[in-house]
## 1
Amino acid sequence: MQFKYFIIGLLFLFVGTTSNDETMIWNEARKLSWADFKANPDPASDAVALTASGITFGYSVKTSNRRIVDFSTTVEAHFYPAKSWYIKEKGDDHVLGHEQLHFDITELYVRKFRKQLDRLVVNQNIKKQMEQIHVAINKALEESQKTYDAQTNHSINVEAQKYWETFIAEELKKLDKYKSQ
């Protein structure tokens, strides 16, 4: 029996990222600091800070006699320092907590993605199924990030910010089995 491995490249939610860009993988024990935000602030933006994060996804399939017999995946939440920025005079711990939660939301969707991938059964349409899940997860992540900013008014609504912090912590805990190592 002959086996072949095909590796499909990493797909990025954050368009324009190159392999040379510095990234940080989400880690429960390591929170963001302002030193991680290395881009120059956008003078046209009303924001105090911007967190660039996204999901990387890769997979490989194992074939035998041109039939897919197995697959493996990698899914990670990444933070992009060279695309993330803040205004030093306005950046405080509260704003940093808001930006950290953007990264935590990305991790939440990584866990949801892994959970869905974990439920897949090997079949000849597995690549298409994984791509469909990938697209759906990225769309849901984008919507969640927008809703978070809208409801918290970009951290200005302190009560909504606290709600989101609690909500995301609870959701992450529910999917602890799928957390990034």
Note: Residues 3-178 form one domain.
## 2
Amino acid sequence: MAIWNALIRTHHITSRKKVAKLKQAASAQAVFVLLRSGGSPGIMYVEGSKDGVEDWVGVVQRLRYKDYQLASKPAATSLEHSIPSEARDVGFFETESVKDFGHQMQQRGVFAWWRKAMGYASDDQRL
């Protein structure tokens, strides 16, 4: 099965009511979701099956977050390094720091992709 992912940026993620809906959708779609909540910027990463990722992104769009940006549309991903299948967990996780978010992207094998999607790196820049 191909792994799909997407990245969403927003102004911030503070509404616990919206976060609860995102968590519920992650469970319903059986996807991995990582949220950077609390302050600005709000970052959402989703990974899973094609349908799961696309459906979860649809839920986020319907919640009408301020400054919603689909930084990287749902697409099949290529990993920077192999990840054991047991590490490809599903579920809903939150962090309050961009640094920790980046660390978790590194562990999932999508750090360079994440940096580019966030605008931190370009194609010709070495990481």
Note: The mean pLDDT is 90.
## 3
Amino acid sequence: MPEPLPISALQHLVFCERQCALIHTEGLWAENRLTAEGTVLHENAHEAGPETHGGVRVARGLDMRSEALNLVGKSDVVEFTPLEAFHGPIAETVRAAASGPGPPLVGWGVLPVEYKRGRSKTSPEWGDCDRVQLCAQALCLEEMLGVEVPEGRLFYGQTRRRTDVPIDGALRDLTRRAVARLHALLASGETPPAVNDARCPNCSLVKLCLPQVAAGRSAAAWIDRRLNTLDREAA
């Protein structure tokens, strides 16, 4: 079996396949303000250490793995809540989930929480990249702990709010398709062409990717257009 791939690569893939290949195939990386802020947020989440409050056990930086998906990763936060603490409509779902296949983690509901800088991503260019990454964590936890994980949370640093994410059938299917695509893309060793759209300006790799050059055009044609523009401005 090939080496397992990082769960975080799924977020890169769903956001932009070219970005994913530049990072995970070509080994390129560059920081900008946004990635630096994200790094600090993740480090703070990991370094706070385990804690218990209100009966909820909080694990940080938990190593995760799925043999079925051939993925590895590290959680920001996983919350373990006693089943008796759940009330209302979610209670029955969580209690049923805790009796899933395999050697179960008896008596506890499991909730992954992924930390992200910025705010909830609802624009089309961002799509489901954060939700897919969170779902992959849930699938890993299910395989590791022998329970079902019916929901997770995305915590956004800019708004300081959690977004509830149901780990439903549609998201699971989307995530499994993304995992298959990730393995195929990185096994191919190919880097997809750039598309040069609204995602590009804030990407830390923009100066390495050069989307204005690589987006389905030749470098010569791009240079010709730039020279023509400069000639018109000089006239």
Note: Strands lie at 5-6, 51-53, 56-60, 63-66, 71-74, 77-82, 108-116, 151-156, 161-166.
## 4
Amino acid sequence: MTFDRKNSAGYVVNLMARLFARHLEAGIRPLGLGTGVFPALLMLWEKDGVTQRDLVDALEIEQPTMANTLSRMERDGLITRRRDETDGRVQRIWLTDKARALETKATGAANAVNAKALAGLSPGQQKQFMDLMRRVVATLDHSR
């Protein structure tokens, strides 16, 4: 049996992800951001003061990768790390004013990419597309 990449869900999803990333990068690069830090920023914009473990678990990123990402974010003035007030062994990650000020523009760029990508679908098709993707993710996530 031959492999047909044009009809492979994995291949097409990977291609789509790379295209989303390329367009997002173009939108957030002028803000001094890259796609590597964007997922962590999204989570921190939702809930500031989480731990590195929280980020690793929520974003499903390997611990060493997250450590490097956080080091870059700290170097770039986007986060600070402070000891937890109740457990000194734990460090919490806090957004800086600089990072908070970027939220509207950065998420606006992401929303613009999403709108552009889904523009060829009706609102009903967009909802169905998102629902189907979530089901595939859930299926793969539960089969690990």
Note: The chain has a mean pLDDT of 95.
